[in-house]
Amino acid sequence: MATRRQVLGNAHVDRANANMTPFDTDFQTMIVESAWGTVWADDALTRRERSMVTIALLAALGHHEELAMHIRATANTGASAEDIKEVLMHVAIYGGVPAANTAFKIAKETLAGMEK
């Protein structure tokens, strides 16, 4: 949970916890344990690198809500706007121009919102 808070921020994690119900408690626990307790907590890659990989995968797979969330998380991971741009250029070649086009739109809107 500490890693999740460090990457996504307390406000996001607090909202997610407040929205948990008995129906999705097991799912949320699985996410915390596997994604945040294992993958993100491992030091084989830096948080910046993990952030960039995550953004690329979310963009290529069209997971737009998660993409915006992880772009906002770059404020905590050290990935820059330039890093995001380069990752999305890579997505265009290996994941498809339409996926990258949508991801660039989401990234521009999200980064602009972060500047405010």
Structure description:
- This is 4-carboxymuconolactone decarboxylase.
- It is an enzyme of class 4 (lyase).
- Its EC number is 4.1.1.44.
- Keywords: Lyase.
- InterPro entries: 4CMD/NDH-1_regulator (IPR052512), AhpD-like (IPR029032), CMD-like (IPR003779), Decarb_PcaC (IPR012788).
- 80% of the residues lie in helices and 0% in strands.
- With 116 residues, the protein is mainly α.
- The model has no long low-confidence stretch (mean pLDDT 97).
- The protein contains 7 helices and no strands.
- The chain folds into 2 domains: 42 residues, no CATH class; 71 residues, AhpD-like (Up-down Bundle), CATH 1.20.1290.
- Helix 6 packs antiparallel against helix 7.
What can be said about this structure in brief?
It holds the Pfam family CMD. The longest helix has 19 residues.
Radius of gyration, in Å, reads: 14 Å
Return the domain count. 2
- H/E topology pattern: HHHHHHH
What distance separates the N and C termini?
28 Å
Instruction: Indicate the percent of residues in helices.
Output: over 70%
- Helix- and strand-based class? mainly alpha
Keywords:
116 residues, mainly alpha, AhpD-like
Record the SSE blueprint.
Blueprint lengths: L1 H7 L1 H9 L6 H15 L7 H15 L2 H14 L3 H14 L2 H19 L1
Helix pairs in contact: 1-2, 4-5, 4-6, 5-7, 6-7
